[in-house]
Design brief:
36% of the residues lie in helices and 26% in strands. With 250 residues, the chain is an alpha/beta fold. A 6-stranded mixed beta sheet has the order 6-7-8-3-9-10, sandwiched between helices. A 4-stranded antiparallel beta sheet has the order 2-1-4-5, covered by helices on one side. α4 packs across α5. Bound molecules: adenosine-5'-diphosphate and magnesium ion.
Length: 250
């Protein structure tokens, strides 16, 4: 049996009376790239935010590296947050901070005080995303693709075992989207990371995914391999695969 790094069981979440997740069971296998597809508003981002404990289940459990994190307090969560890095939808950089300060943010938040260690880690993270020496730039001076790469550097600066990407391709031209795919695959193959990627970009799905799940109305509607996705006759998935998901470009 494959060894899950993250194990989600019976996860339900709601906001007020709106139920967003309706019982998710999901294993993220160590070392895989799992792609999360779904209808807009289907709960993909909400699901992703439960994995590093940024949201707490209303019902159900989330296990990271064998430990149920759903009941931990903020202090107890800190080591698990370091194991699971997240690249937020839309990059979400702090515009008033330099690139270097943005990338250093998770380290400072987790209590790291050693400035030499911080700047070494920040330099390594910027090297990984092919932006060496860009610490002093301001986010406003960067292209969309570079902002995405800074957001990715911030996600990997704590040397997580697993990286979560929320629509890393949104708004990028095909060539820049390809370069993000190369980075995602490079992290998996050369840095041993486990990846969970939300995207609408079919080219990317077939390039990076080891496994695909499709979320609809807060449930896993479909799960399979990229090969199975290609030939699926599921009427909900077919338009996505054929590149007519009805999703607006961001
Ligand atoms: N913090 C929040 N407060 C209230 N509603 C939220 C919150 N986050 C998400 N939602 C709602 O939950 C639903 C699922 O959102 P989301 O997970 O962002 O969808 P998507 O699959 O497009 O990423 C949406 O209807 C959204 O409006
Ligand atoms: Mg989303």
């Amino acid at each position: 049996m494959a060894d899950p790094f993250i194990r989600v069981r019976g996860l339900e979440q709601k906001f007020g009376s709106q139920v967003v997740l309706r019982g998710i069971d999901l294993d993220v296998i160590r070392g895989e790239t799992l792609v999360l597809l779904g209808t807009s508003g289907g709960g993909k981002s909400v699901l992703l935010k439960h994995l590093p404990g940024l949201m707490r289940p209303w019902k159900g459990t989330v296990e990271v590296d064998g430990v149920d994190i759903s009941a931990l307090n903020e202090r107890q969560l800190a080591p698990y947050r370091r194991k699971v890095g997240i690249m937020f939808q839309g990059s979400a950089l702090f515009d008033s901070m330099t690139v270097g300060e943005n990338v250093a943010f998770p380290l400072r938040e987790s209590g790291e005080k050693d400035e030499a260690a911080i700047s070494k880690r920040v330099g390594e993270a910027l090297d990984i995303v092919h932006l060496p020496g860009q610490e002093d730039k301001m986010p406003a001076d960067l292209s969309g693709g570079m902002r995405k790469r800074v957001a990715l550097a911030r996600a990997v600066v704590g040397r997580p075992a697993c990286v979560l990407y929320d629509e890393p391709h949104a708004g990028l031209d095909p060539i820049t989207a390809d370069s993000i795919d190369h980075l995602i695959k490079d992290l998996q193959v050369h840095h041993g990371m486990t990846n969970v990627v939300i995207t609408h970009e079919m080219r990317s799905v077939f390039r990076i995914a080891d496994r695909v799940i499709f979320l609809k109305d807060g449930r896993i509607h479909w799960a399979g391999s990229p090969e199975e996705l290609k030939v699926t006759r599921d009427p909900v998935l077919r338009p996505f695969v054929d590149g007519d998901s009805g999703e607006p470009w961001e």
